[in-house]
Structures are given as structure tokens and as C-alpha cells.
Amino acid sequence: MSERVFLISDIHIGNPQFDNEKLLMSFLDYVKKEATGLIINGDFLDFQQGPPAKILIDFNGILSKIFELAKSDFKIWYIVGNHDILLQNFVVTSELVNILYPRIDIEIGRRLVHIEHGHLFDRYYRRIPWLYNLGSRLLGLGLRFNPHLGDELGYAFNTLQSSRYKFAITPASEGYKGDYGEYEVGAKKILLGKDKKRRTSRTPDIVTFGHTHRPLFKEYAPDKLYINSGCWIKHATYIEFSDSGIFLGDWKKQSRQRLPNTGPSVPTSLKHSLS
User: Fold this and answer.
1) pLDDT for 51-95, tens place per residue?
2) Residue 166 falls inside a structural domain
3) What is the spatial distance between Cα 106 and Cα 204, in angstroms, rounded to a whole number?
4) Beta strand pairing status for 237-242 and 270-273?
5) CA distances to 50, 98, 141, 158, 223 from 55, in Å
6) 108: pLDDT confidence band, cut at 50, 70 and 90?
7) CATH number for the domain including 209?
8) Which parts of 78-231 fold into alpha helices (H)?
9) Of 17 and 22, which is predicted with more confidence?
């Protein structure tokens, strides 16, 4: 079987807005059958907006499938995000399962892929992380009564603000009117080797973020790509690295698109290093 590696992020299991359990179960069944590796790029478990104990009980089926993958001849990388930040206390590397924070560089075939969740580029999280986390927890309480509260607050916030402040509470809000410049600028700096904190002996060919919940592809040069994997709340999107190229797919729509100029990308070696 050819090597195939899938990447997902922002599933938010435990969040009152997450209702794609059956869809995710079918995706994991497919991954188990067809792939050789799975990368989870943060916010798989939503400890910020869902009780940890309840998450482990209510979503035992999903977690069991992850454990099944880990027991097979399969490679799993879990990069911690801001909603599952508790897992940074359980960082571990092994032959089959790796829990890592805050980022990782993985060599997939001839390409070096830089992977991190993306919250460290969020202008709000970066400035006052404790307030960001507090607001996220309070929103989680409200979501238990109204699963659409986050989007409604985003629209209301934009309506109340003057034209000078065209942004919502968070980039993941449906009503967000700000730009995503900080993520694209950050990705470009990494790709060009200009980010001193993330500089390695080899400049990455691809940067992948999550966090914004918007699937996105940007090509800065034929071999310098930025890809955002989207989410599993409003979408069910994923990135696929396979022998026929790199794809951005939507499991809900049962569609996928090969990204331009990616060409064959056979992940014959799955080496990784912390950056």
C-alpha cells in the first residue's frame, strides 16, 4: 500500500457546537483502512468549553478508534492547541504516538512540513492569553444553553463596533470581519526562514495551521505552500499527503481537490523533529 498521511484540526470534541460524531467516526474508519499516518493539529479535545470527564465518557467511541489506530502499524502525531492546552503536560514521543507542543517539523517524502496549531499567531491570544482563555471558558458555559452563541456574539460585536474596529471576538466566529494577515504573514516568515523562534537547519516547504476554522491554501512560490486545515464544526475538512499529490478535502461533501503544483509527494520517510 502506498503511504498516505492525513491531517485534521479543530474537531472540538466536547464543544456544544460539535455534532459531527458519526462523520468523524466514518473518517477514522477510512483512515484506518487507507492511510499510514494521522496528524491531529490541535483542538481535537475541547477542554476549554467542555468538561474533561464528560468528554471522555460521551465520546468514548471516537477515542477508542484513536487508540485502535495507535495499536496498529500506524503513526499518530498530536500537536496541542489552545483548547486542549492541558495536554502540554503529557508531551510524549514514541514509535507510534507523539503528543507534542507547540509545533513540529515532519519530513514527508521530499518536503519538510512545519505544523503548529496557529493560536500563537492569534493577535488576541498573543497579547493577553489569560483573558483569551477566560473568555473562551465563559463562552463555553453559554454554548451549553445556546450552541450558536459564539456566532451571534461575533455578529453583534461587529455591528456595535465603529468602522475602525472591524473584527469579532475570535477569528473562529462566523461574523469575523477582520483579516487573517497575522497567520499568512507568520507562515510566510517561516517559509522564508525569517522566523527566528522557528528557524531550523532546513527551511520548511509547507506550513500548516488550524485555529481559524477556515480551510485555505496559499502558494508563495512553487515549493513554498501555506495550508490551513479548517475544522470539524462548520466543515469536515482535512489535508491529505499521498503519492499523487497534496489534497485539501471535505469529508462532509465527499470531495477533495489536489493543490496546484504539488505533484507527486510520496511520504516514504516519516521523520520528525521538534522545532
Assistant:
1) 788 888 888 999 899 888 887 778 899 999 999 998 988 888 877
2) no
3) 9
4) unpaired
5) 7, 21, 15, 32, 40
6) confident
7) 3.60.21.10
8) 123-127, 129-143, 149-160, 181-191
9) 22
For residue 60, give its domain range.
Answer: 5-122+178-273
Q: What angle do CA 212, 259, 261 make, to 5 degrees?
A: 130
User: Could you tell me the pLDDT band of residue 110, with boundaries at 50, 70 and 90?
Assistant: confident
- Give the span between the Cα atoms of 44 and 72, in whole angstroms: 20
- Specify the number of domains making up the chain: 1
Q: Is the pLDDT of residue 22 over 70?
A: yes
- How many angstroms separate the CA atoms of 148 and 152, rounded? 6
CB environment 82-116: b (16+ within 10 A), e (fewer): bbbbebeeeeeeeeebbbbbbbbbbbbbebbbbbb
Give the Cα separation of 37 and 73 in Å (integer).
9
8 closest CA partner among 211, 272, 255: 211
Residue 164 inside a domain? The answer is: no
User: What is the rounded average pLDDT of the residues 233-257?
Assistant: 93
Q: For 138-160, how does the pLDDT look when each residue is reduced to its tens digit (9 = 90+)?
A: 666 565 566 655 554 544 444 44
Cis check: omega of the bond before 267, within 30 degrees of 0? no
Residue spans of beta strands (DSSP E) within the chain: 5-8, 37-41, 75-79, 92-93, 97-100, 103-108, 111-116, 206-209, 215-221, 224-229, 237-242, 245-250, 255-258, 270-273
Q: What is the pTM of this model?
A: 0.84
Classified as helix, coil or strand, 27 is helix
Is the pLDDT assigned to residue 258 strictly greater than 80? Answer: yes
